[in-house]
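Spend some time on this chain, tokens included, and walk me through the fold:

. . .
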Amino acid sequence: MITSIIWLPASLLAGLFQAWRTAVQQRLRADLTVSGASLVRYLYGLPVAVVLLIIYAIARGWSAPRLDLWFFLLAGVGGLTQILATNLLIMAFGYRNFVVGTAFSKTEAVQAAVFARVAFGEHLSALAQTGVGLGVAGVLVLALGSQRFHVREIVRSLRHPAALCGLGAGALFAATGLLIKRATVEVQLPDPVSEALVTLAFVMLLQIIMHGSYIAWREPETLRRVAATWKTSSQVGILAGLGSACWFTGFAAAPVALVRVVGQVEVIFTLAFARLYLRERIRPLDALGLGLVSGGVVLALLGGWLKS
């Protein structure tokens, strides 16, 4: 159910910020471990989340909500699945390039649709479902590259370590969206932005506690590297805070699958960042994948608009 039109600009901006953040984060892999590159999202993103929360609370004039144990459980598990998903995504980059790693993870849109249907009974219109399928076809084109488009080749590609990491990341990102959406329901504030910002601040705090404790135990040197790379790491944190605020707002205002498929505009931004920022070569076949993803987003938008 769509409760506010804010889900649309939030989803589009989320795709932009996530592609931008991931591109900067990819450069950190030369200086940090997988866990370290993931930690900077929350460590440097929390101040952004808190500032956004304070500014919005003052502007709207609402007081702090009462949060129960169920909220913290949902926020904690959602934060954990996001940590694991981010680690898998960064690992996928190590096997293939930036575009392909992101492409495999973008199957989260169809996975989110399935999970949401089973867990919460969320149902997309036929047009939006077609958009999901078209978007997934687009990311498969990007992922398979110049390989032949036979079933055997697709299956073989999906057995590649990059595919396994990307698909696992997609599943966990889909689960994260559903858990976060359920957590925002527990906040019970006047509008979805308020609920999203409260949830975001606590999720990031719990992520720092969980992930930071693990790194302090297993990789203490990584904490020093995270501090030493603060200039780049803080950029990742700022973009992560802004992107997560948009994702959480979208989840609070619309079905998770619809937000995820519109957020696939990230793939379009990813291609641009890969070419202009990371200087990666873009294949001619990427244009086909780009077109399919774009068409999927358009159909999802039309489906969501007609249903609302």
Summary: The chain has a mean pLDDT of 81. Residues 69-95 form the longest helix (27 residues).
